[in-house]
Protein 1
Amino acid sequence: MFFRVIPKDVIPDLVRGLSEQYEVIGPVARGDAFVYAPVEDPADLRLDYDTTVLPAKRWFFPESEELMRFRVSDNAVVEEKFDTTPRVLFGLHPCDVNSLLLMDNVFLGDRPDPYYKARRDNTLIVGVSCMPTDLCFCDAWGTDETHWGFDIFLSDIGDGYYASIRSVMGAELVDRYVACRAITDADTQAFQERSAAFKAAFTNDVDTSQLPVLLDAKFDSDIWDKLGEKCLGCGACSVVCPTCYCFDVHDELEADQLHGTRVRTWDSCQFKQFAAVAHGQNFRDTRASRVKYRYYHKQWGYLSKFERVLCVGCGRCTRACKAQINPVRVVRALQTGVVE
C-alpha cells in the first residue's frame, strides 16, 4: 500500500475517467435520503452523505436475480446468468467495506457462490471516510476503520483526500486520470487530527467486550419475550442490513411450460414462514424466538466460525425498525435486564 494526496476538485475527473471502462456506482441523493446508484454525472456523486438506505451488498447479492434458465422436459440447464459487468463502487464508508469482507466469508468460502463471485471479481472498491451520525456504533465492533478490502480509500483532510492505494489497478487508475502529489508531514498531521475527531464524535456508548459470555448467560432470559412483543415481524432489519444473507430460491415456468427460470430472492429470518417445514411444523413460530436467534446468529454463531461479529454498526436497522429494536438497545437490555 502507498499513499498520495488527491485534490478534491479532481475527483470528477477520476469519476469521468472510470466511467470510460466501468459502470460507476456511488452515493447519490434521492430526496432527503441517499442510495447507491449509477453515477451518470460526477456532480451527482455525494461523498458527504451520512448513509444509504440500502447497503452495498445489493450490487453483489441483488434483491432478486435470475440464476439460470432450464428446460422442463429433462431438467437441463439451458443458460446460466452471470453478471460480469465491470463496476466501481465509489464512496463506501468503512462499515460498508467491512460488511463486504464479512459477506465474502459466506459466499467465497469452500464452495464459492459463482453469481456473487462473478460480480465481486469484476468490481473495484473506492472507500471514503465519514463522520458518525447519532445512529452509528461501528466503533463497538472495530469496523469504524478498514485497512484492506478496497482498491483506493479516500480520507478527507480538508482541500484534498489522503488516498490509501492498496491494489495495482487502483494505482494505475489514479495515475491515469488524476494529478496527485506525494504525502507531506502536514498531510499526515491533518490525517491524524481528522482521525482523532472521528473517534471522538461517537455518541452510542455500548460495551460489547463480554457479549458472547453475556449471550450464553441470557439464553433463557425473558428479555427475548419482551422484545418479541415489540417486534412487528416485518423483516425491515434484514432488508437494510449490509450483512444479512438469507435467501430463497424458486422456479418460475414460462408461458409455454417448456422452459423455466430459477430465481433467487432475499429472505428474512424474521418472517414467520422462514423456519416452517413439512407437516406444519415451525421451529421458530414466535416473534420472540425469531428475534432471539437473529441476534445469536449475528453476535455468536457467526463469531464462533469466523471470529468476527456479523454486524458493522452502520445504524441502518435502527433507522428502519418501527419497533425501535436495534443492537445497541438489545445489548443494553441484556446487560441491565430492562427493555428501554
Protein 2
Amino acid sequence: MKRKSLKSVLVCFMVMVMTAGLLSACGGGDSSTPASGDADSDDGLGAVTLIMSERDEWLSEMEEAAVTEAKELGVNLNTVDAQSDTSKMLQFIETARNDGQKAVIINMVDPTTAAQCVEAAGDMYVVFVNRYPADDSVLNEKVVYVGSDENTSGYYQGEWLAEHFEAEGKTEIKYILLNGILGQTSTTLRTESVLKALEEKGITAVEATSPLAAEYTREKAQDMIAPLLKTTEYDCIISNNDSMALGAIEALIAEGIDPTTVPIVGIDASTDGRQAVKDGTLDMSVFQDPKGQGRGAMIAAQNLVSGNVLNENSDYELDETGYVMWVPFEPVTAENVADYDAR
C-alpha cells in the first residue's frame, strides 16, 4: 500500500508540473506586453527600447515626447539611461535584441561607435536620434537617423551676429568660443557653420582665445571662461548650446560685468535659455525641437517595421538618401521667444 501510494503521489505531482508549464507557455499576462502585440508579433512595432546617452533637461524632454508618441502608437516603450557609458549602451542594445524586439532607438554616448551599435543590434532596425553617426556609411534601409541638421544651427547664430555687428559698423571681431564635446558631429558642425555664416556675411572673425571645450555643461563653461573675462579682448561669446552660454552669463555676473553688454548666442532654446533671452542676457538661441525628435524617432521606428517611407505620418523632410529625417532648427530672439514657450 505504501509503495502504491507513493507512486500515485509522484504521478499527480508530475501532472501538476506539466500543467503549470503549459499554462506558463500560453499565458500573456506580462505587464510589459502592450495590448497591440508583443515583441514577436508580425503586426506593428510591439515593444521597443529607447537608450538614452544621459538625462539632461533637453534630452529628458525628448524622452518624454517619445514615451507620449509610443502610447499613441500602442507601443510598449522601455527607456534606459546609459549614463554616458558606451559599454552600458551596447549591453542595453544586446538586451533588446535578445528580448526579440524589432527595433531599437539609440541616443549615442559617442557617435564614433555607430558601427558597434549596428553590430550589437543584429537583425533589429536601428533609429539613431539626436547624435548623428560620425561615419554615416552605416545608414541604410535598416539603420536611419532622426535629428536636426547641425549645418543650420550655427549658421543662424552667425547670421544674427553678422547683422548685429554690421549695425555697429564692425567688419572685424574677436570671439570666445564655448565648444561642446570634442569629436561629436554636433560640436564640429555647429562651430563650422557659425564661422561660415560670419565669413559669408562679410565679417572677419578671429579667435580671442583657444576654444574652450566645456562639454555642453554650464558649470565647466563658467569655470573655464571666468579667468578670461577681464584679461582677454573679445567682442562676443559663441556657445555650442544654451547651458554653456548660461554658464558664461553667470561668470560675467560674478565678475561684475553686465551680460547685456556682451553679445552671447546659444543653441537649443531650452527653458532656461528662453528665459535668458527674455531677460536680455542671452541675445539669441536656436530652437532644437526635443519633442519633435522624440516623436520623430518613434514614428521612424514604426515606419521601418511597417515597411513605410521613413517620414510617413509626419511633417518632417528626408534627405536625398531617404535614410535621414530632419527635424528643423529655428532661430529664437526676443521678438519670437514667447512663441516657443508652449511647444
Protein 3
Amino acid sequence: MFLCDKAFEVQSRGIMEPLGVKVRVIQAGKFRRYAHLTFWQHFTVPKVVTSNFLDIFKVGRGFFQSVSIIWRFKPDVVFTKGGFVCLPVGLAAHILRIPLVIHDSDTRPGLTNRFLAKWADAIATGSPLENYRYASDRATYVGVPIADTFRPKSDAQQASYKQKLGFDPSRLLVVAVGGGLGARSINLAMSRAGQALLDADLSVYLVAGKGGYDAALSEAPEDERFKITPFVYENMDELLGAADIVVSRGSATFLQELAGLKKAVIVVPAHQLGDQIKNATVFAAAHAAVVVENLGIEDDSRLSDAIISLARDDLRRHELAEALHSFAKPDAAKDLAQILVTAAKR
C-alpha cells in the first residue's frame, strides 16, 4: 500500500495502481522552513506563521488516519522517504510496533526523518554517512534508487541521441533542466544567453517546465540549435545521455541520475531550499560539480560564463564527470530492498 497526501494523489495513482499497489490519501501538514529566512523571520511572516499553525492539526488528523489504515492493512514493515506526509505515518508505525525503515535522498536530513530516526529500525542514506548524524549501528549508505537506464552511454549512443533530438553530433550539447515545474531563473538565464552560447559553438536543449515555456520561448534566439520543450515525458536517460554539459537544480534524485550517467554538471540550487544547497555543497566539495548561485542569474552572465568555460575545458569536464560518477550506486534499489526484508523479519 502507498500513502500520500492530496497534492500527489493523481501522480501516485498513475504510477502505483497499474502495478497493483493500492493508494490511500491521508491528511498531511508540514513545518515550513526557508533557507532565505532567518530563524526569527519564520515567526514574524504572517503567512508562514498561520500556515504552520494550521498544519499542526493536519498532522494530528493524518496520524489517526494512518493508525486506522496501518491497523487494518497490517504491513510487515513501513517505509518512509522523509517528506512531511511521512511524519504521521511513521508515528503510527511506532505506536503500532510495526518495523520502520526511513530513507534520506538528500545530504541534508529532513526534519521528518530526524524526528523519526530515534524509532527507526533501519536508516538508509542517499549520500555517505559522514553527512548525517544518524546512529552508525542502524544507518547504511545505499544511494538513491534510480532506473537501470541511467548508466554511462557510449560515444556512439550519445551521437545517436543528439541526432534523434535534431542536433549536430559534432557540437557540444548543453541540456538545462529546472525540475518538473521548471525554474524561472534558469529558463531566463539560458534564454537570454542563448546567442552567446550559440556563438561559442554550442547546442542547447532547455526543458522549461509547463509554466515557464512561453516566457523562455519569448526570450530565446530563433535558431534550430536552441530548442525548448515544456516537459519530457519519457526517455529522460536519452536526453541527458546526449548532453555534454547538464545544468540542473540540486535535487538529490536528479543528481544521482546524472552520477549514474557520468555527466559534467553545473548545479544551480534553489536559494530557498536548504536541502538543494547542501546537496550542491557536498558535490562541489568533492569536485564533482560546478555550483552557480541562483539569485540574479537571469540578469547577469554567471551561468553562461560557467557553461562556456566548461565547454572549452575537455579535461575538467572529464574530471567532473568521473568525480560525480563516484557517487553512483547502481545497486541502491536492491540494497534498500534487502534492508526492508531484514527489518520485516525482526
Protein 4
Amino acid sequence: MRTKGVQNYPTMDQVVFGKPASEAVLAEAERVGAKRVFLVVSHTLNTTTDEIEAVRRQLGERFAGAFDRVPQHTTRTSAVALAKAAADVDADLLVAIGGGSVVDAVKIAAVCMEHEIFEEDGLDGYEINPAPGAFATAAKAFRAPRVRSVVVPTTLSGGEYNAGALVTDTRRDWKQIFHHPLMMPLAIILDPAISRHTPETLWLGSGTRAMDHGIEALCSPLGTPLSDAVVTEGLMRLARGLRRCKADPSDLEARREAQFGSWLSAFGLQTRVPMGASHAIGHVLGGTMGVPHYLITPVLMPRVLRYNRPATEEAQARIAAALGEAGKSAAEALENLLEELGLPRRLQEVGVEPADYARIGEIAVKSVFARTNPRPLTTAQEVVALLETIP
C-alpha cells in the first residue's frame, strides 16, 4: 500500500478522441494559432495511403511541409535533418503522424530547432546521464523549446504521453534519453480509423509495450494511489482490446478500446513515475541490438517480472488480475496473453543470444531506470542474471 509520495502532472493540454485525425489536426492548429504546420509522418502512410494527403488538404495554407524519413529507433542523424527542414520553412507547430519513432523525432527536433542544432554532435550534453539517487539530469541546462507538437499515434506504444524522447546515437549504437517538460506534446489525437493501416504484429506488439508502462508504474516504489488506479484500468482495457483486435483486426471499437488502454497505462510514465529494468534493458535491445521496439516487451517483461517478484508481490497480483488471470503469477498471466496474440517470447527469436548478455549488461546498468527498478540493478552482472531468468 502506498503511504507517501508525490503526484506529478504533465505540461500537456489535452487528449482528443472521437474526431477524424485530419479534422482534429486542423482544430489544434487553429486552437494554438499555428500558421506554419510541419508534418512528420510515417513513410508508409505517406506513400501508400491517402491519410497524410487528407491532413494536408484540411490544413490548406497552414501546411508548411512534410518529412517522412524517420527510421526505426529515431537517430540523431534523422532528428537534426528533420529540425533543419522544419526550421528552413519557419515551422511553428510540428505534427507527428505515425509510430513511436516519429513521435520521438518531433520531441527532439523541437529542442534542435530552439538551439539551432543541425549536426548530430550538437546534441552532446543534452542527453540524460545517470547520477546518484533516483533521478538524473542532462549535463547542460537548456532553454525550453518554443515550437511545440501535436501527435496522432498509429501504434499503441504510448511514448507520446511523456516529455522524454529516445534517440539513438549511431556512432556508439546507444539509445539515449532526452527530456524537457515542454517536449511533451500539446495534444494527442486518438483516431482508431487511421490505425487500420498498421500491420497486425506491430499493432499488437506495440500494445504490449504500452502494458510495459503500466506494469513498471505499478511495480515502482515511487508510484502513487492515483497512478496505480489509472494504470490498472489501462492494463484491463489493453488486454481486452488486444484480444478483440486479434480476433477481428477490422473492429474499430476494439482498436479504440486498445487506444484508451494505452492512454491509461501510460499515466504513470506521463506523471513521471520512474520506469524500471524493462526500460533500462529494452533501450539497449532496441538501440544497440536492433530489436524492433514492439517486440521488446514480449521477450523481456516476463523475465523482469520474475526477477522483481520478491519486491513486488502485491503489485504483481494486481497485474495478473488485470490481465484476466487472477491467482496466477503476473509472468504466467502475461505469457498466456502473449501466446494468444502470437508474439515471440524468447530473446533468441528476436536475434539476441546469451553471448550478447554481457554487452547488454554493460550498457543497461548505466541507465537511470536500472537504478529505479524495484530491485535496483547496480552491476552488469545483475543485468545478465535477469536476462538468464528462464521464462
